[in-house]
């Protein structure tokens, strides 16, 4: 148990990124995530908004509760009260620690935009933060507290995204694109400030660290200006592409139902 929690450093052999242990562990998390999202989404699909929203409220409580535990536990383990500087919610995936509560507790256009933001990035973050988290699974044994916390928070993000669309809570109004851009821009600026001051690698804007951004990093040979610019550009292009695909599918289904 001491080794699972990483006190004194992990002594077990690191199974490795994309090892069968890594893939099995994250696949179990993803299966549970999808099953719960489908179950609660279908159960609440025809219910009122208040009932639908309760699931998001619990999602917000869980993801932020786990994050609070992470802050306290890692500070104790590292014996450094400033350890929180390295686990701020300034990664693309961890933004959901703020946007899921915003979607659960706000109202009006802000709520709709937050719901859409979670829908757009939640599932992407869940996949990138589990299957493609080379920074985690290349450094730690698969079964350890670091990977469990990371897996749970990413799975909650993916769950919330799937639940939102299955239960019919998404609005995907075109005017919400501006708010989604604004949310993302604020976090990118904060990440760049944190990277300069701490320093660290929030939003993977400094280097790829074993993530799929390695392709971008290699493309520009690690250029300190071009690399973060291209990564941020990809974020915005992803939002636009997501909207395009969403409406293509929605219009196709509408035509099919009317036929």
What would you say this structure looks like, in words?
The chain is globular. By secondary structure, it is mainly α. It is built from ten helices and no strands. The longest helix has 33 residues, at 226-258.
Average residue pLDDT:
94
Low-confidence stretches: none
Helix content: 55-70%
The helix/strand class is: mainly alpha
**Rg from alpha-carbon coordinates:** 19 Å
- How can the largest sheet be summarized? none
First-residue to last-residue Cα separation: 60 Å
Write the layout of secondary structure elements.
Layout: H1 2-5, H2 20-44, H3 49-78, H4 96-105, H5 108-128, H6 134-137, H7 145-166, H8 176-197, H9 214-219, H10 226-258
Helix pairs in contact: 2-7, 3-4, 3-7, 4-5, 5-7, 5-8, 8-10
List its traits.
mainly alpha, 0% strand
Summarize this structure briefly.
The chain contains ten helices and no strands. Helix 4 (96-105) runs antiparallel to helix 5, helix 5 (108-128) packs across helix 7 and helix 5 packs across helix 8. The chain has helices at 2-5, 20-44, 49-78, 96-105, 108-128, 134-137, 145-166, 176-197, 214-219, 226-258.
């Amino acid at each position: 148990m001491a080794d699972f929690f990483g006190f004194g450093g992990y002594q077990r052999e690191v199974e490795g990124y994309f090892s069968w242990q890594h893939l099995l562990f994250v696949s179990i998390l993803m299966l549970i995530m999808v099953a719960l999202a489908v179950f609660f989404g279908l159960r609440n699909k025809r219910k009122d908004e208040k009932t639908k929203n309760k699931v998001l409220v619990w999602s917000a409580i869980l993801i932020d509760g786990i994050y609070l535990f992470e802050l306290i536990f890692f500070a104790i383990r590292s014996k450094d009260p400033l350890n929180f500087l390295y686990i701020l919610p300034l990664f693309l995936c961890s933004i959901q620690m703020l946007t899921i509560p915003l979607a659960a507790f706000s109202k009006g256009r802000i709520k709709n935009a937050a719901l859409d933001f979670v829908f757009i990035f939640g599932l992407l973050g869940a996949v990138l933060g589990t299957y493609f988290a080379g920074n985690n699974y290349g450094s730690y044994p698969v079964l350890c507290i670091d990977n469990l916390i990371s897996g749970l928070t990413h799975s909650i993000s993916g769950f919330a995204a799937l639940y939102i669309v299955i239960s019919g809570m998404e609005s995907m109004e075109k005017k919400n694109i501006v708010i989604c851009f604004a949310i993302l821009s604020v976090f990118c600026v904060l990440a760049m400030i944190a990277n300069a001051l701490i320093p660290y690698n929030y939003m993977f804007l400094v280097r790829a660290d074993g993530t799929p951004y390695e392709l971008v990093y290699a493309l520009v040979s690690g250029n300190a200006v071009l690399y973060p610019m291209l990564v941020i550009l990809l974020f915005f292009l992803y939002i636009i592409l997501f909207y395009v695909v969403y409406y293509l599918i929605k219009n196709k289904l509408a035509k099919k139902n009317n036929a």
